[in-house]
Amino acid sequence: MSLPSRLSKNKNEDEAPKEGAPSDPPAKINHKNILNLFFYIFNIVFTYGVGTNGWFGNGTNGELSEKYQTIITPKSTAFSIWAVIFIFQAIFAIIQFLKRFRAHPMVQQGVSYWYCGACVAQVGWTISFTYEIMPLSLVFMLLILFSLYGLLYSQYYTESTGKLVEFWLLRFPFAIHAGWITAASALNVSVVAVSKEDPADIQLAIGIVSLAVLHAISVWVLFNLKKGPNYTIACVLSWANGWIYAELQEPKDLITNTFAPETINGVAYAAASVAFIILLQVVIRIGMTAFTKCRGDRSAASDDEEQHTSGSDGMYDAKV
Q1: Hey, CA dihedral for 206, 210, 211, 216, is it positive or negative?
Q2: What gap in Å lies between CA 3 and CA 296, rounded to an integer?
Q3: pLDDT tens across 2-29, in order?
Q4: Non-local CB neighbours of 148 within 8 Å, separated by 6+ positions
Q5: What does the alpha-carbon distance between residue 95 and residue 187 come to, in Å, rounded to a whole number?
Q6: What is the per-residue pLDDT for 163?
């Protein structure tokens, strides 16, 4: 063997990876991972400490919600969705430290700093609502909404694996949060009107427009997203409307003293209709997706069959 050949062989052997050696070093935990956990804890401590347990002595969120009852306030059972939100976000805050997820694009580029912003805004909302500064609480509510939709927008344009584990652990916790804050933002507008003691016709108009806006958003997230529908937000909006109907079956004194029975029943039926229509839209969208996939599979199968009977350039072989 010549000297150049021997040198080339030795060089190739040196460059070849050794068996059992890792190809890439594992990604390190960075400041984004740490901030996600920190702000989750920060948020849940304030939300449950101040909002649920009334640490500031100004009443709990439940007590204040009843004090500022609106024509579109859902039944208290609806707020149990917060347990789902915080449980899934707790799972996210923990698993994003694992090697498999810590450098995942959905965490680093998708969630980025948006979740931190949402948590800070939510703490601001909790404090302002506790002190009954309702216009300020609306500002913070809209900031939460902006942060969460910014997060979802960022994830929407982040490369996705399309796997269920990615959806449930890295995307669902924020989609369900965004869905609920969408409904809560509409409610917060009505709360401001009640706090200002606006007349019944103004409160009614705000309530009706709110239901219409929530339905419009459900249409948008189901039928207008090019990469696929967001079923989570749509289902949460249906959930909220369903519990608005349930609450108006036994309305609080503030509602019965403000609105006529016919008005209360009308809003209740409208909320129930919106809840049902959104669910119907979800079923239709699932059907459309299934039909499109089925048609695509048939087209692919047909193309494969043609390819088997054609030459390498895709044209049918001519018989001579």
Answers
A1: positive
A2: 58
A3: 444 444 444 444 444 444 434 456 799 9
A4: 114, 118, 174, 177, 178, 181
A5: 33
A6: 95
Token pair in block for residue 27: 């990604």
* DSSP labels, the chain: --HHHHHHHHHHHHHSPPTT--SSPPPPP-HHHHHHHHHHHHHHHHIIIIIIT-TTSS--HHHHHHHT--TTPPPGGGGGHHHHHHHHHHHHHHHTTSTTTTT-HIIIIIITTHHHHHHHHHHHHHHHHHTT-HHHHHHHHHHHHHHHHHHHHHHHTS-----HHHIIIIIHHHHHHHHHHHHHHHHHHHHHHHHTT--HHHHHHHHHHHHHHHHHHHHHHHHS-TT---HHHHHHHHHHHHHHHHHTTS--HHHHHHS-HHHHHHHHHHHHHHHHHHHHHHHHHHHHHHHHHHHHHHHHHHHHHHHHTB-TTSPBPPP-
Per-residue pLDDT reduced to its tens digit, 57-89 = 888 999 999 999 999 999 999 999 999 999 999
d(C-alpha 291, C-alpha 287), whole Å: 6
CA distances from 265 to 121, 139, 209, 245, 278 (A): 35, 31, 16, 9, 20
Of 232, 53, 78, which Cα lies nearest the Cα of 156? 232
Residue-wise pLDDT for 105-141, tens only, equals 999 999 999 999 999 999 999 999 999 999 999 999 9
Give the pLDDT band (50/70/90) at residue 305: low
CB 122, CB 43: distance < 8 Å: yes
Strand partners, 316: 310
Work out the angle between the directed axes of helices 200-223 and 261-308 (0-180°, nearest 10).
10
Q: Are 231 and 281 in contact (CB under 8 A)?
A: no
How far apart CA 264 and CA 79 sit, in angstroms, is: 21
- The answer to whether the beta carbons of residues 178 and 141 sit under 8 Å apart is no
